[in-house]
Design goal:
Distance between the termini: 32 Å
Helix content: 40-55%
Largest sheet: 8 strands, mixed
Mean pLDDT: 90
Number of domains: 1
Structural class: alpha+beta
Order of helices and strands: HHEHEHEEHHEHEHEEH
CATH architecture: 3-Layer(aba) Sandwich
Low-confidence stretches: 1-12
Radius of gyration: 18 Å
Strand order of the largest sheet: 4-3-1-2-6-5-7-8
CATH superfamily: Glutaredoxin
CATH class: Alpha Beta
């Protein structure tokens, strides 16, 4: 019996390791995008009075581009997960903008709502950063192509799990300390999309001014770090977080 349990644990560990490698492969297609905070934003970190909201889903290459820039600008935001099947949130986007297209940004600080990843990136760079480099839009097709390859390599987080399409959100938003380029954070974000759970992203890219806040809260600078005020839970380690989400929110 003990040997059987030991074998099962080893098998689970091997599956987790392969999943980590697979997620790392996705990160390699994006280079350093979504890893390091821009120098200007290291010195002048934007802290909007009202949180930005992004209607998006993990496997969308256009959404990926915007999330990467959010990390690079050291911006926190609320993610409204809109994987296929999250009909109520997809309907919200259609009602607001006239079509079900993602990403869709809402910035209540400036009464701005907009589609189109490139327009969103330009807006964020101009309002919350040093502006966009002149050649940024020129290289947009290459950037989009590589983002699409990353999504093709790892298409998880594209669809809501059956039975969770109309779930009620918890009273308090879950909070995820995150780096977009982290393969371990990706595993957690994918599961949040599959479970149709909205959450607040606290980006802590390298050289982020939020890193001391994370260290004070959890004891070290490591991502992902999940806070669930509904259950009084705070925790590191992607596999443990995924298991916690399954145990707590994975029953339809």
């Amino acid at each position: 019996m003990m040997s059987l349990i030991g074998g099962m644990l080893r098998s689970m560990s091997e599956i987790s390791h392969l999943d980590d490698v697979h997620s790392w492969t996705t990160s390699t297609f994006r280079g350093l995008r979504g890893l390091i905070v821009k120098p200007h934003n290291q010195n002048f970190p934007p802290r909007p009075e009202e949180p930005l909201e992004l209607y998006e889903f993990e496997a969308c290459p256009f959404c990926r581009k915007v999330r990467e820039v959010m990390t690079e600008l050291d911006l926190s935001f609320v993610t409204r997960t809109c994987a296929r099947g999250a009909e109520s949130k997809r309907e919200v986007v259609e009602e607001k903008g006239g079509k079900r297209q993602f990403p869709y940004l809402i910035d209540p600080n400036n009464s701005v709502e907009m589609y189109e990843s490139e327009d969103i990136i330009t807006y964020l760079a101009e309002v919350y950063g040093p502006g966009r480099i002149p050649l940024g839009p020129t290289f947009s097709p290459i950037n989009t192509g590589l983002a699409a390859v990353a999504s093709a390599v790892r298409p998880r987080g594209r669809k809501v799990r059956e039975g969770f399409e109309t779930r009620e959100q918890p009273d308090e938003l879950l909070v995820l300390y995150n780096i977009e380029a982290s393969p371990y954070c990706r595993k957690v974000r994918e599961r949040l999309n599959e479970l149709n759970l909205d959450y607040r992203v606290e980006n802590v890219g390298k050289l982020s001014s939020r890193r001391p806040e994370l260290e004070e809260r959890g004891g070290e600078v490591m991502v992902p770090y999940l806070i669930d005020a509904n259950e009084g839970v705070e925790m590191y380690e992607s596999d443990e977080i995924v298991a916690y989400l399954e145990d707590t929110y994975g029953s339809a």
